[in-house]
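Exam review. A common question shows you a sequence with its structure tokens and asks you to describe the fold in words. Practice with the pair below. Do the first one on your own.
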Amino acid sequence: MNRVFGALVGLALFAPVPAEAAPKAPTSKPPASKATTAKKAPTRSAAPKARAKAPAPQERARSAAAARVIDWVASSQDNRALPYVVIDKTAAVAFLFDAKGTYIADAPVLIGIALGDDATPGIGSKNLAEIGPAEKTTPAGRFLAKFGLAAGRQKVLWVDYATSVALHPIPTGNPKEKRRDRILSATPDDNRITFGCINVPLAFYNKAVSPLFQKKGGYVYILPDTKSLEAAFPPLHAFPGRAFADTALQDATAPTEPTL
């Protein structure tokens, strides 16, 4: 009996014990970390970048004649505290300066068809149809220019009022002349097309010339085709010399229209 009881006790010692059920994973989500729950600090806006300065205007090359006249005007103050523009007919370029002689801008120009540095006497009283080919010159010299009205109440910068020479934007009346194409061409060879007036790009006229010349006018220096610089600008004989008297603006009968 004791043996049987001992055997049963031995079997009980070796009986398998059911393993404990593994604890279930918690169903609730773990608390979010501070990094995810904390409000994002407002980011500082980047400091506004400083605006880049506009590049200085790229100036066209000056011929020796243009450089000499420009230097003379600045050194002698021949412009008399007024803005001025120097027209190089050979290069078909206009150089614009303010009253202090500071370079402002330059632009290509269209000029008279004919070579020559003098205006035909009485040309200011002629109609355009009456002007012969040899008369279509842009006169050389120093001119006191002011804004005024032309035919059709058109406002122009009168360079030489007596001979109907004005500086104004390119007219659009005759597309066959292709004036816009001519002024945009790479060479000055085709820039002679006008009756004697000086045509300039509209932007140059409105944004550069007009603001400077609007109040008191200014000077226009037109370099010669065939004359010497001294013949066109006598003070150059003794540069730097005394500036010569202003070219008077004629207040007599107004010409019917600028020569274009």
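Now try the second one, then compare your answer with the model answer below.
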Amino acid sequence: MYEGQVSQVHRISRRDFVSSMVAGGIGAAVLPDLAKGQDAGQTETRYIAAYDTESAACLAACSMIAEVHKRFEMPATFFILGKTLDANPAEYRKLLDDPLFEIASHTYTHQMLRDNVFCGPAVSMDEKRNEIFKGKEAVERVFERPCIGMRPGCGFDNALKGEPQVLNLVQEAGFKYISSLLWGPDYSLPVPLHEPFSYKADGFPDIWELPGHGWHENLLKDHNRWGPRRLTLWPPPFPEAIPRGFCKTPKDEFEVNKVFLDKALETGKPFVSLIWHPWSLAKFDPDMKMLELTFTHVQKTGLKPCTYSQLYGRLSGSAKSS
């Protein structure tokens, strides 16, 4: 969710509510070995720290974030907006060009690739092409390595299902995975623990959807200045992950994170990844205590850290399991 982005649609429909709830994770194409969960005290559940890096304030924030990651030896995926990257290319290269980190695209200027009830209508096909291609080009030019993944701005409640023209652009650009399923049914929060799936049903079997989970953490703190907002489902799938009010401390935020980490582990989900924004994390918690609490818990519980590209390699068979 882009810093300062405000709602453009005030009435939320309840379209596909029942079918969405029945469909659950929309994950029919998940590989069986990843979905089995724990065995003899071991877990195959991956944990991915991921950051939507999208505004000027993210550069200083990423410096603090990277330090914590290196201290914990915790990998991460940074989805970086091309426009943000082009504003400080040398600085981002110096900061994030590390084997721990995957650099992926967050499009070029955060325009919508399909309609989003909170963030606005989709742009034209020419603009979508520009967002997809220029975002990828910026990452590859600055970091001089392949960019195989993209997270569209804001994300959607049905990923890119039913959008063959957009998927064709994604394929033409050379992306291997997208991370666009970032809302629950009918644009609700928190996001359930959706599982990965391929876009085979849309005619693109080689493109994988790797969702995000939980809350857009900036909304937990009212950093977008939306105030009270109708976001949750009734009955809620994760009542224990719905705080009574906006988070006030890093521990408050960690306790929300913990619900999703523990549930993913208990239910043997393939992976869990929360939706974080560097600008918002630094504004709320400049000492990054929440990251320390979360990473300590990940290591204690035995979740296996990786990046989105490593998860894609495991799912697609293009890389050996780790």
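Model answer, second protein: The first helix runs from residue 17 to 23. Residues 30 and 197 are 5 Å apart (CA to CA). Full marks require stating both points clearly.
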